[in-house]
Amino acid sequence: MTDFAATKAMFDLPEGMIYLDGNSLGPLPKAAPARVQKTLNDEWGEMLITGWNKAGWMDLPTRLGDRIGKLIGAPQGSVVLGDTLSIKVYQALASALALRPDRRIILSDTGNFPSDLYMAEGLARTLGPDYVLKTVAPEDVAAALDDEIAVLMLTEVDYRTGRLHDMAALTQHAHSVGALTVWDLAHSAGALPVDVTTCKADFAVGCTYKYLNSGPGGPAFIYVAPEHSDTATPALSGWLGHDAPFDFDLTYHPAPGISRMRVGTPAIVQMAALDAALDVWDHADIADVRARSIQLCDMFIERVEATCPQLQLASPRDGTQRGSQVSFRFEHGYPCMQALIARGVIGDFRAPDLMRFGFTPLYIGEDEVIGAARILADILESGAWDRPEFHARSAVT
Ligand SMILES: *Cc1c(COP(=O)(O)O)cnc(C)c1O
Prior knowledge:
The protein is built from 13 helices and 15 strands. It is an alpha/beta fold. α5 packs across α6. The model has no long low-confidence stretch (mean pLDDT 97).
């Protein structure tokens, strides 16, 4: 059984703050500053260029890939870190399309994160006029799968409402019509149990700065199913995905296996922070995290519905059908969220009217749920949300 008091003690959270935005940016793990400092002083400072060999920097993307692999049901040697999630979406999608050369349609849904759709559009434009991105409503995905679809590209957890797709069933359906799948696990990895192997996902990608707490701009990960990893062509064929980068061969030959999904020089300092952040998972069981997250989200829904009649639940009511977040619709959601933030309850706002609250049991418990619901009710009852300063929009919402 995971000791959540112990995991909470592993994070550095500001006194008095109720942090419900770990689904956008996880908090600072206490072990991260020392680990980063060590990388800076003992490795970069002392070893300079020799750190690539001596400090194991060159293998860090695959070593961390194996650690993340354990959280998503991926075998050793099938996950690698690097770049940002948008880049990894492009890479996975390009490789999947190349494995279905007779087909031209990418199927996704309108619940996907815009960057995934933008990357798909950009890739389709690059590949030529025959390639199209088709988007349907999330509930219509299964019906839209036919033998013209090359790749089904979906995000498992809807970033707005937390609605979950059935990854196993949709993957099976996609395969039955001859399509491949690219799953985005941005709001899944570290939030709920994922098993890319049992689900038979072909490609999966995700970021590490949300539920995996690697810090702002932390590297993304990509998984390629072992059956594809020696045949998938990397569209972004950088030198570190080459079979022998230090031969400086003028022709590109992809490395065997997952290493071909590397592109350029890895961000070692940020990866050091991720390495420290992943230590938390040596003390946490993802099944316990999931059970506790459902419990906390249910409790928040119950309290908000009892005290805030102005708000409407936008997330699935059934906890097994949503990720680790709860969203409410409120036409004055933006100023209301600003008022909450001013009172130390940090959630976020997604246009046009969603107030989003992430519940991360590693460092959030019942006290925070009760406190957040109480402050929200107070802000609504007093009308404090309507103060002019809460209406001013910032660049990041
Ligand atoms: C957070 C998120 C992103 C962000 O991509 P970056 O390249 O890391 O900025 C992309 N897709 C999904 C589904 C996300 O949730």
